[in-house]
Write a structure and sequence with these properties.
Aldehyde Dehydrogenase, Chain A, domain 1; alpha/beta
Length: 426
């Protein structure tokens, strides 16, 4: 046996030990009263608030290390915590605690002619592995959504946020213990070893579902190697289309927000499509607003002809999730041309149309098959918290089980409960 094989076997054993502890803990959590799970979340929220300065100080060590390693500005932004973001995490826990109980919901119920009463009832998924990179807030969101939905969470954060994520996980565990719920329902991998990702992906029959939260390389690896079911989106190539019937002020405000509010999130717009009938009047001013906000523009020939500061786009630009202050721009002949472009280059995440024409809006909504489709709204609203879910683990772009923001309700499966009156089958 080679040293590498021995090491991987050791990591698989480590994952199995964590899963064994999680499985016992989850049985208690999945049958616990809603009030106990709510109490754990509220205690964790209070702990995060009271430890805000310590969290930020710990985070600064991770940030400094990332800066020394030459990490990009967008990555640093995703990694950095400040007082506002710490408060947002605490408030997110309170929002999740305020949700109706996801467990035990009666999803459907009917009676058969033979007298059988059949109900479909929501149940926890079980053990959820979350593999993520730079965002330390994912530690809190993922643990909280798993907790409220009765699932045990095994967290593998990235090395860049290792210390911050570890501290946040400990505060979530304190919340569990305060409510007399087993601490093993939230477990952080004790190492940032990349091989642990492979060990988690190989844990078929142990981990019930894997959720990756990170860049393209991470998600591609998870999707190609996993022997465990996966909820994932590959990337967020989000589009905003300005229709011929768009209001100019609305269009300018939405696109600047969609691109520049936070460039490093998956809901940030990456491509702007503009109807040719309004491109001449709208695009130059919109381009000025974007460049003044610090955005670099890459356009097709028609767009470059209208904005001389725009860099010519290449084919790869239409397929790129920049996660940075860069926007590709294309002029299209019609809403159907916009739809065709999105169908060719989009990642199935979020698209938005800006228009005052209801028929055009409905046409766009019906023909775009992305997880989230919007009218007259910034793509930055593609977020479980903004959808009233309290928080999310990510945006799923697949078509099985969960699609769009993955919140507490999406972390449940179901069982059938059949009530009879001595029924026997002839």
């Amino acid at each position: 046996m080679t040293e590498q094989t021995h090491n991987f076997d050791s990591l698989k054993a480590l994952v199995s030990d964590l899963v064994t502890a999680a499985r016992h803990a989850q049985k208690t959590l999945g049958q616990s009263p809603h009030d106990a799970r709510r109490s754990a979340l509220l205690k964790s929220a209070a702990l995060i608030r009271s430890n805000s300065d310590a969290i930020i100080a710990t985070n600064s060590k991770d940030v400094q290390k990332a800066i020394e390693n030459g990490i990009s500005a967008a990555f640093i932004d995703r990694l950095t915590l400040n007082a506002e973001r710490v408060e947002s995490m605490a408030a997110g826990l309170e929002s999740i605690a305020a949700l109706d109980d996801p467990i035990g919901r009666e999803l459907a119920r009917w009676q058969q002619p033979n007298g059988l009463d059949i109900a479909r009832v929501a149940t926890p998924l079980g053990i959820i592995g979350i593999i993520y990179e730079s965002r330390p807030n994912v530690t809190v969101d993922a643990a909280a959504l798993c907790l409220i939905s009765g699932n045990a969470a095994i967290l593998r954060g990235g090395s860049d946020s290792y210390f911050t994520s570890g501290m946040l996980a400990r505060l979530m565990v304190e919340g569990l213990e305060s409510a007399n719920l087993p601490a093993a329902n939230v477990q952080m991998m004790p190492s940032a070893d990349r091989a642990l990702v492979g060990a988690m992906l190989a844990a078929a029959g142990e981990i019930d579902v894997i959720i990756p939260r990170g860049g393209r390389s991470l998600v591609e690896r998870v999707q190609s190697e996993a022997r465990v079911p996966v909820f994932a989106h590959l990337e967020g190539i989000c589009h905003v289309y300005i229709d011929s019937d768009a209001d100019f002020d609305m269009a300018r405000q939405i696109i600047v927000n969609a691109k520049m509010r936070r460039t490093g999130i998956c809901g940030a717009a990456e491509t702007l499509l503009v109807h040719r009938d309004v491109a001449g009047t709208m695009l130059p001013d919109i381009a000025t607003a974007l460049t003044q906000a610090g955005c670099a523009l890459r356009g097709d020939a028609a767009a470059c002809a209208l904005v001389d500061t725009m860099t010519p786009a290449i084919e790869a630009d239409w397929r790129t999730e920049y996660l940075d202050s860069i926007l590709s721009v294309k002029i299209v002949a019609s809403v159907d041309d916009a739809i065709a472009h999105i169908s060719t280059y989009g990642s199935g995440h979020t698209e938005s149309i800006i228009t005052g024409n209801t028929d055009t809006a409905e046409h766009f909504l019906a023909r775009i098959d992305s997880a989230i489709v919007m009218v007259n709204a910034s793509t930055q609203f593609a977020d479980g918290g903004e959808f009233g879910m309290g928080a999310e683990i990510g945006i799923a772009t697949g078509r099985l089980h969960a699609r769009g923001p993955v919140g507490a309700a999406q972390l449940t499966s179901f069982k059938y409960v059949v009530r009879g009156h001595g029924n026997t089958r002839p």
